[in-house]
Design brief:
This protein starts with 5 loop residues before the first strand and ends in a 17-residue tail after the last helix. The relative contact order is 0.17. The strands form 2 sheets. It has a 4-stranded antiparallel β-sheet. The chain has a two-stranded antiparallel sheet with strand order 3-4. It is about 40% helix and about 15% strand. The chain is elongated, with a radius of gyration of 17 Å. The chain has 4 helices and 6 strands; from the N terminus they run ββββββαααα. The protein has one domain. By secondary structure, it is α+β, with helices and mostly antiparallel strands.
Length: about 160
Amino acid sequence: MYPNEKIYLGEVKEDFSNDVGLCGQKIYITHHKWDCGWYWSCGYIGNRSLHTHFDMTFLMGHYDYVDQLFEKPRYTRDQWWQIRDLFIQAYALKEAANVYVFGGHQTSSAFRFSYGKKMANVLNKDCEIVLNKVWEILQNPIYSVSSDKDGYVFA
């Protein structure tokens, strides 16, 4: 696995409505990686000048279908639904592991499970499996594109 590897998702349609300025942008997703020794860093999308997150952009809006998002979709609707569903699972596993690592987030005296680290390890292993499946799907688009030596798609 290559933590700095990126995959081109597509060019976002001009009428895509969100607050981060994705309209007309060529968007990439970065490979997940183990971070800070306790969680999976995942779902980072953007390009050379824009950085945001998969969940905030593609899971919390009213654009459910890949052909509503991208000018020339690289994935089928079925693939996009699988990617979305797997990301929902990955984010849930990541949050659950976080609870077992840290307990609460509002106070240092929050309840902590005695088996917290063990459960977090189990959840993080499952999260890795899910994220690897996402990456497997992302690596098999319905059509490919040409890119430069850094992996950026030709305009």
